[in-house]
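BUG: 3D viewer hangs when loading the predicted structure for this chain

Environment: internal workstation, default settings.
Expected: structure renders.
Actual: progress bar stalls at 90%.

Input used:
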Amino acid sequence: MATYGTFGGDAGRHPVPRSEAPWEKLKAESYSLFLKLSDLPKGTYDEFEASWADKENGEFKGGLGAVIIVRYTETPVGMFD
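Structure tokens produced before the viewer hung:
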């Protein structure tokens, strides 16, 4: 099993239950959001992220994007998003 964070791969110490692949039977629902932006909305950057809005770091050119949210309702380790 892979090493995860500071738990050193010890599944007994990890707060999330582990189950070996493959997971044969899953049930889930998903939400797909597709968008096209030509400019970023005002207030996109938090004050802690303001340096990302600096032109020296590049600028947003726009384009297509997608957000996919999957909500697993039945898995070997229980529900999760």
